[in-house]
Write a structure and sequence with these properties.
The protein is α/β, with parallel strands linked by helices and 329 residues long. The protein has two domains: 115 residues, no CATH class; 163 residues, Alpha-Beta Complex (Spore Coat Polysaccharide Biosynthesis Protein SpsA, Chain A), CATH 3.90.550.10. The protein is 41% helix and 15% strand. It is built from twelve helices and seven strands. It has a seven-stranded mixed β-sheet with strand order 3-2-1-4-6-5-7, covered by helices on one side. Helix 5 links the parallel strand 2 and strand 3. Helix 3 crosses helix 10. The two termini are 15 Å apart.
Length: 329
Amino acid sequence: MKKLVEKVRSSGLRKLCIYCVPPQRDKMLPYAQAEQILSRHCPDSRVTCPEDNRQMADYDLSVIVLMDNREDYPQCLDSVFTQKTHYRYEVVAVHGGALDISGEIPGKYREKENFRLIPQSDRCLRQVRGRYLMFVAPGDFLPEHAVQSLLDAATSRNADMVQGRSCPGDAAGMVWGRVFKAALWENVCFPKGCWLEDTVMTSLLTHLSDNLATVSHVVYHRRDSAAAGKPGSIDTFYVLRSVLEARRQRNLPTDSAFYEYLMGLMVQCIRRTGSEPDPVRKSIFTLFQKLLQEERCRADVEIPAQYNLLEELLLQGDYRRFRLLCAVW
């Protein structure tokens, strides 16, 4: 079956595959009932993205390192502390709070004036003191000129965000390999329990940035492909809903690029929840339909052609064919 799905995906026969299945408009769950089913199965932790994070800028940069009790963070911290740069920067190690890891951090780090260890929370960005912010995952590390290169570009162009290359692969849509002007985060935070969630990056920060810059060389080495603290598939729905609310509060437009991203995230979530009980999957389908209807009212754009059928099935409530199309997407 897996080989068949891959063949359909690669052959461009997705639409033909769907048209071979008879339409079936299922009786839609009331939104309140769908919310209740989903909440019983996986409660919404009331994730939020808006926050008041205004702080004093005592450093040029705050390098924020997420600690998760792993043994491979020494190389990460070494690479941060040995940067060849004339810029002043602090290193803020953020730990999950489940265990006290302060005693595990070598004294050569703890004794540094520009090092602090703080507990992870949705408000910990209030405690950073840099004009720019940079995020580093445990196990990853920085080339020795990363800070100098990124801040040179940021200060010379007064950029809101500067993106460099990550190795291996592309880090588009993620927080790695970039610096952000701290002012961008004054009213934004990562959702609780979803630290470094790339939905916040893609859906909010890029649209709040007026001045973007890039550097052409590698500024970030990634050891792991998955982000630390990656939320589960159902949490992805909750995060997306919170981000959409934050976008509405900021009057950010729903353009073609974001609408395409939204549809892609729906497909991803539907596929990831394939092993969940059927009532849960139907609840997510129902609530996605509600979200899409709300965004469709705000969007005055032409929908990319490849998403027409996907949108049609979702809005018509054709649960079976929508799931099938997502499976072969």
